[in-house]
Amino acid sequence: MNEFSAASPMVQLAELMLNADEARAQADEDALRAARDAQQQALQSQVEALHDAADDVRVGAWVEGGAALAGGLMTATAHLETPLGEKPAGAMAALLDSGQVLGQMASPLGRELGEAPSMDAQANAKQAEAEGADAGTRAEMANRHHERVRDDQDRVIATLQDILESESQGNLALIANV
User: Fold this and answer.
1) How far is CA 102 from CA 50, 56, 63, 65, 115, in A?
2) Each residue's pLDDT tens digit, 5-54
């Protein structure tokens, strides 16, 4: 806070204005700091969501590959256990059919367990990106307001200096006349 000891109402008004400007400047600095912290947090959330999306794609790929491999092994086993030139029958026919079905389900399983969660994580990343942009806007607004307050303070100080100089010259004139 600024404290000038002067009897002039103009100086007292200028002092009040400077104190108010200082409080507004401090509030702007706090808002700017909070907005930048929120922006950093949103960026971190975005990065984490994108990593989650990549992990989900990997899970889907492993599930799809595993299901395709298992289906292929089942189909191959059914053919290997069936005598040459014959069609698989009984348990081997069931194994062959199950292997073919599992092979066909590999891609949908991969999408369900990988792509769908990945898309959800990407949506979360977009939400975090929007929050980061909003925090960036708030930070910019707080910074501009802070600059305006500092400009106002500079003008008040210049005016106060003019007032004090005028009062000083007036006091010197009074002393000279005595």
Assistant:
1) 30, 21, 11, 11, 19
2) 556 787 788 788 888 888 988 888 898 888 889 888 988 888 888 888 88
Task: Go through the domains of the chain in sequence order and give each one's CATH number.
Answer: 9-177 (1.10.287)
48, two tokens: 């984490």
Residue recorded with tokens 């600059």: 147
Does the model's pTM come out above 0.70?
no
Do 32 and 143 touch, CB atoms closer than 8 A?
yes
Give per-residue pLDDT as tens, 131-144. 888 888 888 888 88
In sequence order, which residues have a C-beta less than 8 Å from that of residue 74 and are 6 or more positions away? 95, 96, 98, 99, 102
pLDDT in tens, 70-86: 999 999 999 888 888 88
